[in-house]
Specification:
Number of strands: 4
Distance between the termini: 47 Å
Largest sheet: 4 strands, mixed
Number of domains: 3
Oligomer: single chain
Shape: elongated
Strand content: 5-15%
Radius of gyration: 26 Å
Strand order of the largest sheet: 1-3-2-4
Protein name: BTB domain-containing protein
Structural class: alpha/beta
Number of helices: 13
Helix content: 40-55%
Amino acid sequence: MQPTKRQRSESGGGPPADPIRSDVWFDDGNLIVQAHNTQFRVFKGPLCHSSKVLKDAVDNMGDSKGVDECPVLFLSDSATDLGHVLRTVFYRWAYPDGEPLPIGVIIAFLRLGRKYKMKHLYDNGFSRLSAALPATVDDYLFGDMKSKILFRHPEYSQRRAEVVVDGIVIARELNLLCLLPAAFWFASMYPEPLADSASLLPEADRRTIQLAVKPLRLAYADYLFGWLDEAIVPSPDCVQPKACCDSKIQRSLIIWRPPGLSLNLGWNPSTATGLCKHCIALGQKHQSEGRKKLWNKLPSFFNLPSWDELLAPPPN
């Protein structure tokens, strides 16, 4: 097959490389879709039915011919992203709705679902990524990520780390700012798992995360553990006032002593070491209220709009 002018121009003027045949290839297909140097042989009908944008592109395509005189539709997308989307169109069983998907597939659904106005695909990708980067603290702590995203690591912190960098990048690309507070929070809380991939983030975002660490630690200690500093005024229902007061003072000193505890939003039983049952229950109540207060203010630590603005539907 002789390379087209489009293929020559994309190669920068040098000898064009032979196109690579992808695994999405039907020998009786009547359309070749090419992304960079990768070709997909598919059927016009189902492709056009899946997206009006793609239908318009097919209707307006040139007369370039590929294998067996099939017309060639050139797209500027990543071949990997396009492959994921074409598999959903032509192999319905490739990515079942009820099973977790790799983060790369989810990003492709978001990116190309938005570009080609494939709403079901975009919604699928968003529901999955927002399970890992949610808008509420309860969903962050207790939400079900494992049924939505296929993780490589068994550890909780490592799992979320797998999606944070990609989440920030696609959130910036598609203006999905509601995903950023949870992603930035994790990046501030667990920098170690992100050490190898943080360089992929925009410099401005890396700086924002770094500047938020100290204010977040202070707010975290205040909102979630300020109740420990009430030790000088024991609860009237406390059954061991002196022992509980002493324990609260000791725990408070540990939390405030730099660098302080890791920013874990969940309840840590060690926080209540030495306290009576009443004071433990009271502490859990205060911490639950405190983490909701902190989460409500979370966007402000990263110079983002309020949650109400972040979650508001886009204007028509």
